[in-house]
Amino acid sequence: MIHKLSDCQAVIPDSTNIWQFCVVLPNAQIGNNCNICANCFIENDVVVGDNVTIKCGVSLWDGVRIEDNVFVGANVCFVNDKYPRSKEYPQSFLKTTIKKGASIGTGVVILGGITIGENAMIGAGSVVTKDVPAGELWYGNPARFVKKI
Q1: What CATH number did the domain enclosing 2 receive?
Q2: 61: how many CB neighbours lie within 10 A of its CB?
Q3: Structural domain of residue 130, as residue ranges?
Q4: What is the pLDDT along the chain (149 residues), one digit of tens a residue?
Q5: Domain tally for the chain?
Q6: pTM for the full model?
Q7: Could you write out the DSSP letters of every residue in 22-44?
């Protein structure tokens, strides 16, 4: 289902829902059985796996890779440029990868070039400044290891 008030330019599987006020650019790759909630923006060089939930207000910029069974909470902020300037673009954008089964809490900021490991969990409001290993809970500003999960 693609809501009539969204602007979806990419090919979307029938099993995926795109809700109102979303923009999905034509080269984005979106998997099966995903739920992309209202007010999301997805650029061209983005890959979203199967069974992914992206809550309201998330923008996925060029270079973001989200694997299968990932949860991305509302208003998560992905960064893809270390030194942003108006009308000045890097030769390539940083790649950020969220591995299978990871969960990202509401309002998290993820700096570019980060990998969040399989089944890892990031607590709400955290700022992720370095790679997070698989199966770990991290939170805070900057996000730090809390425990194995």
Answers
A1: 2.160.10.10
A2: 20
A3: 1-149
A4: 899 999 999 999 999 999 999 999 999 999 999 999 999 999 999 999 999 999 999 999 999 999 999 999 999 999 999 999 999 989 999 999 999 999 999 999 999 999 999 999 999 999 999 999 999 999 999 999 999 99
A5: 1
A6: 0.95
A7: -EE-TT-EE-TT-EE-SS-EE-S
